[in-house]
Amino acid sequence: MPPTRLQTAGPALGLLRWYDDFGRDLPWRKKGGVRPDPYHVWLSEIMLQQTTVAAVIPYFHKFLGRWPTVTALAAADLDQVLAAWAGLGYYARARNLHKCALAVAALPAARFPETEDELRALPGIGPYTAAAIAAIAFNRHAAVVDGNVERVIARLRRIETPLPAAKPEITAIVSDLTPHDRPGDFAQAMMDLGATICAPRNPDCDACPWSQACMARQAGVQTELPRKAAKTAKPVRRGTAFVLFSKDGRVLLRRRPEKGLLGGMYEPPGTVWGPSFGHVEDAPVKTRFETGGEVRHTFTHFELTLKVEVAFDVPENAPGGVWVRLDELETFALPNVMRKVIERALTVEPPARTARKRG
Ligand code: SF4
Known about the structure:
The chain is α+β, with helices and mostly antiparallel strands. It has helices at 10-22, 38-48, 53-66, 70-75, 78-85, 92-105, 116-120, 127-138, 147-156, 167-177, 183-197, 215-219, 336-345; strands at residues 236-244, 251-255, 266-267, 290-298, 303-311, 322-324. 37% of the residues lie in helices and 10% in strands. Iron/sulfur cluster binds at residues 152, 155-156, 197-198, 203, 205, 208, 210-211, 214, 216-217, 222.
């Protein structure tokens, strides 16, 4: 039975009323006291890490269409999961997703555990995700604090301590505010408030259910909060990617080592990423290369600049990889940075400038 509103009091009540009227309809969400499927909650929370709701929705539908249960996902090949994930970024999530599915499928009745501690013991589930699943899927009292919630609370209580140092204080406030009767709805309401009303640049305070209580608004400093510690510049790595086209327009891909960054994913061959770009002499074939300019990509811990070198009519006995038609690329687990590399290469004209069909 859905809990009554009267069980909750104070700021939580105002926010839950707002959520009942204005909370977003999302494919993994249930409203009106209905519990969502823990598999859907988990899948959405993993996909939403570092990724926007708009980007996640089509992937969420794609995964559920192919693997409607956690058992089905566990039975899939990792390669299939990586290929379906391609384009969503942060690929360690996809590998952990598969590992976690295997771990859950091995539990009695293939049921997700319900407590934060048990959830955190699973692959790829950190403190935030464990709290979110416990609250949203199992209605457990848990302090769910993502970037949106940090911003809302820093403003509501006018917290001047910069992030990340303010995190423990914010978590304690969220824990106090979270009601015991609708913790999952409260968590989602906070996320929605941060995503739709208490926006980073232009908070719509007139539409906010907490406008009367908000200390930052009262002081007129809402757009200055949360304060953030100065960021240090990310280190820069460089490398060269060799995009080799065969006579019939196929492209050579190799598989990255299973462990490490972008582990198990595909890419055109290239040099090691380090302080310098590397040399054309490091290419897997000796041939003429056309310069395709540079591609830049930001990873969590570094910035990458790749030079793109393109060769045409390469014999298909070139070592160490698979020749793939361009219309087959979708079925390969290609990280975004390598999609950018291939797109860049496709803008390069073959030296003879003869019309040719690629793929
Ligand atoms: S009143 Fe404005 S700044 Fe305060 S929580 Fe609401 S939207 Fe955010």
